[in-house]
Amino acid sequence: MNSIKDLYPLIGKWKIQGDDVTGEQEMKILDGNYFLFQQFDIIYSGRHINGIEIYEFDEGLQLCVKNLYDNEGHHFTYYIDIVEYDIIIWFQEVHSENSFKGKFSEDFLSYAGAWTWSGGGYSLKAIKS
Asked: Is residue 111 a contact partner of residue 104, using CB atoms and an 8 Å limit?
């Protein structure tokens, strides 16, 4: 990953549908092009969760870092890498086994993949609306 601009394919509104998750998310770029901001509203495992995420590029790691804050009082950190059409998101630490691995469509209007962790996981598809 070279910069925050590598996340530009995620800018816009998305509908999410998966095994145990449905909802919407919208990502915007903040003036100055240093940070991305995302709002989300999902139903996951029967729970209604909404919140915000702030994305920034970490020069030392050469990855994007996002901080999530939700209506249940959680604050989580994720590390993101996009290479061509592949996207990887690690939960709490780089190369964590708790991760999302997915692939964008060639036109970057959808992506599909799965979150996996020890003893669990779920798949999802997101379509730009």
From this structure: yes
Q: Using CA atoms, how far apart are residues 121 and 9, in angstroms rounded to an integer?
A: 24
> β-strands 110-117, 35-44: how paired?
unpaired
pTM: 0.93
Give the percent of the chain with pLDDT over 90: 94
**H helix or E strand, kind and range, residue 17:** strand 12-18
pLDDT exceeds cutoff 80 at 102: yes
Q: Which of 97, 98, 110, 61 is nearest to 81 (CA)?
A: 61
Label each residue of 58-79 as H, E or C: ECCCCEEEEEEEECCCCEEEEE
Length of the chain: 129
Residue with tokens 């992506």: 111
The CA angle 127-83-11, to the nearest 5 degrees, is 40
Cα within 13 Å of Cα(18), Cβ side? 26
Q: Which residue, among 100, 90, 115, 109, has the nearest Cα to 15 in the 3D structure?
A: 109
